[in-house]
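User: Hello! I'm new to structural biology and keep hearing that structure can be predicted from sequence alone. Could you demonstrate with Glycylpeptide N-tetradecanoyltransferase? Please show me the input and the output so I can see what each looks like.

Assistant: Of course. The first part below is the input, the amino acid sequence of Glycylpeptide N-tetradecanoyltransferase. The second part is the output, the predicted structure written as tokens.
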Amino acid sequence: MVDNNSSSNSPAENQNANPDGNLPSESGNTTIDALAHKVQESLSLSKRHKFWETQPVGQFKDLGDASLPEGPIEPPTPLSEVKQEPYNLPNLYEWVTCDMDSEETCNEVYNLLTNNYVEDDENMFRFNYSKEFLRWALCPPGYFRSWHIGVRVKSSKKLVAFITGVPAKIRARDTVVNMAEINFLCVHKKLRSKRLAPVMIKEVTRRVHLENIWQAAYTAGVILPTPVSTCQYWHRSLNPKKLIDVGFSRLGARMTMSRTIKLYKLPDSTVTPGFRKMELHDVPAVTRLLRNYLSQFIVAPDFDENDVEHWLLPKENVVDSYLVESPETHEINDFCSFYTLPSSILGNQNYSTLKAAYSYYNVSTKTPLLQLMNDALIVAKRNDYDVFNALDVMQNESFLKELKFGPGDGELHYYLYNYRINRVLRPSELGLVLL
Ligand SMILES: CC(C)(COP(=O)(O)OP(=O)(O)OC[C@H]1O[C@@H](n2cnc3c(N)ncnc32)[C@H](O)[C@@H]1OP(=O)(O)O)[C@@H](O)C(=O)NCCC(=O)NCCS
């Protein structure tokens, strides 16, 4: 996920594309030398990571050092040596394990995230993961309840921070590694900058270690030591008028609203014969198709049938999957999917929610990927999504421009904890989408 320093995950398109936004501004009588010094100082300060420098992650100083071996940075410690008690929190707060099956707890998590989770740079939009989505994202096969971690105020019991992990098998080159996927790190707005996040990260790490798992994968909009890959979001307008009205996108130069609406218009029905929604009985075929497809990427999940059933079987307002069943042979050769992640629109008179689809896993073997994704856009439009987002991972670059996606203004960085990949990967070498 991204944080509010970057709008990469959140849906602001072409906003504030000023890469120098963090540099100190020039004041009247500053000499060039002093300015250069200030810039240097601010850069070196901003590059120090008091917490992350202590963790087994690739460090900036090691970038490009091909002599370092790929694989775990530190060996596992004996389980008996893993700290048995939780890390200390500031006195007013306590740890809780969040039971996502409890309607009440799920509501509390939902409210914390709805009000405090990721926003774009300009604070116009905030992710609004639904409760069903959170349950789906947090309770896959083999999940650990102990990895759904909350922080409450002792006196009032108010939930003020959250972090989660779910287990996943992730392949890096030829090695399948048991990992935790870490997500939903959130600290209440009133408790920011108090170094609570490092304690939460250490606590989830401890609980992951207790299950004898020593690696993790995560994404963020901020640069931390050290990205495995840096990706970009692209956005395809489905409801351009609304997107422009709420400030998500702007009318292009020399464009009128009606020309823009025409530009993004899609047919009412899909074009590929045999294109239909995935069903339970498709799980074995989809698993075979997807496993084969993902094997070409350097880092990708190692899905089995249970994973595919959980992550890809359509779930209303959470995840949608379509496939192409050959009308002649009934073979399944193509597949596409997207998940539903709305954003709250902050402070707009007319609209409160932006309905966004996020491209998930897509496989084309017979139907051209461009045609398959055009059909995905058509079903998303038919189901009232306002925008279809996709990262430039896997083979997505091959359809983005042609299908009228526009580049977003932020970046999404992928990270591995305690696992070194000895060079930075291109987005097209990544076969992993985290929620
Ligand atoms: C992300 C968030 C929890 C960080 O909390 P904070 O109060 O701003 O920061 P803290 O003082 O507690 O901790 C700062 C440390 O956390 C690290 N950190 C900040 N955001 C991080 C992230 N997304 N992932 C991992 N580490 C992160 C910082 O780099 C810093 O460590 P460093 O000194 O080694 O660089 C908080 O800003 C937040 O809830 N933001 C909105 C939701 C969000 O963006 N979540 C992250 C999605 S990836």
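User: So the tokens describe the shape?

Assistant: Right, they're a compact way of writing down the 3D structure. Reading them back into a model, for example: The chain has ten helices and 17 strands.
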